[in-house]
Write a structure and sequence with these properties.
The protein has 173 residues and is an all-alpha fold. It has one domain: Arp2/3 complex 21 kDa subunit ARPC3, CATH 1.10.1760.20. The protein has 6 helices and no strands. It starts with a helix and ends in a 7-residue tail after the last helix.
Length: 173
């Protein structure tokens, strides 16, 4: 495949993954609105698209999706939500990328997803503490670590199941 076509394919896949992540974020908000979840706890379904992007397309694609997701949060929930989304998303993607660089036989997508979900929560709590000028938000860390591990495992298992069907995109690297 020539370089121009490869770049166009990469751009197209990135746009489709960003759209999928936004759709999953929107669906997640609808789904969790009626559930008795603690504040800040979400399943993180859109991270399926982000982890797939990081694994199959590369770090720039995953970073682009995080920025798009943060922009969506900014537009739909305000500047603070956008900032928290960006901080959590960046730490999450950098964690994904670092773990994907390790020997893949030792780590499953579920394990990487758990670690990145926990990193996302730490990034958001750190950003909230920075904005508030107080470490008070860090008291919420145990709740978000447990929920991040649980929901990270769920999204990771989903990616483990669908990844074999999506492997034909690996030529993008």
């Amino acid at each position: 495949m020539n370089d121009k076509r490869r770049r166009l394919t990469r751009l197209t896949v990135t746009a489709m993954l960003a759209a999928a992540a936004l759709a999953m974020s929107f669906f997640e908000r609808l789904l969790t609105a009626g559930l008795p979840l603690p504040p800040g706890v979400k399943p993180g379904f859109s991270n399926i698209a982000v982890l797939f992007a990081c694994a199959a397309v590369g770090l720039p694609c995953a970073l682009f999706i995080v920025v798009i997701k943060a922009g969506f949060a900014f537009l739909t929930a305000g500047a603070t939500a956008g900032f928290l989304s960006l901080c959590g998303g960046l730490l999450s993607v950098l964690t994904m990328f670092a773990l994907l660089k390790l020997k893949r036989e030792r780590l499953t997508y579920a394990g990487i997803s758990v670690c990145s979900a926990v990193a996302h929560n730490i990034g958001q709590l750190g950003a909230a503490s920075l904005l508030a000028g107080s470490a008070l938000y860090l008291s919420w860390l145990p709740v978000l670590l447990v929920s991040g591990a649980v929901f990270g495992a769920v999204t990771g298992v989903i990616l483990n199941v669908v990844m074999p069907a999506l492997t034909n995109v690996r030529f993008l690297r």
